[in-house]
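Reviewers asked in the last cycle whether our approach scales beyond single polypeptides. To address this, we selected a multi-component target totalling 272 residues and predicted its structure end to end. The input consisted of the following lines:
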Amino acid sequence: MANAERVFAALQDPTRRAVFERLRDGPMPVGQIARGLPVTRPAVSQHLKVLKEAGLVDDRSEGTRRIYQIDPKGLGAMRAWLDQFWTAALDAFAAEVERNEQKEDR
Amino acid sequence: MSTQIHAGGAAQIRPAPVRKSIYVDATPERAFDTFANGIGRWWPKTHKTGQSDLDRPVIEPRSGGRWYELGVDGSECDIGKVEVWDPPARLVLIWQLTSEFKYDPHLETEVEILFKEEGSGTRVDLEHRHLERLGKTAETLRQAIDSPGGWGGLLELFAQETSKSN
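The resulting structure, written as structure tokens, was:
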């Protein structure tokens, strides 16, 4: 069965969650996000990449800097929802296939 | 739902596709058949778009076919369409449901399902892609469930969803 932790893999990592929470204060560049966090800038960049793939964080260029912000369109929520939906649906599908196979074996 | 969603979406953000794999102890033929023709036997009854209680979803067995749900009262509500019908290897569906589980003819996201023989069974790989097209509709979902800028509301919602489906 689906579990929320799997769906929220992107936010499961405490450091990544801290990076995400930093952005609640508003859009900011990676250097500012890293300030106050006990991790290196490259590590923060790596976490931002994962958050971006999960649809939770968005970025844009401003001059030579890259500014990160919480995705205002809620794609992360949508993606997490679909992730959860398909996990449950495929589990149900597999159970149905196996049920049919057992019937045939008898 | 009148919101129009353009192919590129207004969102710059491009989330990674949702990818799921599962192994079933059956031939690709049977796995494909259960997935497509037998969708009414496994699709979660809780997930429906119409007013009526869900009888079953239907995937018409041809490329260009309809994908819709049948209510217990005989009503039909579109879910999307069949892009590729290629049994037993490949099925591509167009998912046209918004975050509110409402049909939107202007919204097209793709769900590709591949069935590959593996050992004595079949590996089923599902990919739901072009999620950035859900940008505008996703906003509604976020507003509905998100506490100001937070992820706590989300976690709570999905915890509820999970215990509901258990």
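Residues 4-105 of chain A form a domain with the Arc Repressor Mutant, subunit A fold (CATH 1.10.10.10). We regard this as preliminary and will revisit it once experimental data from Aim 1 are available.
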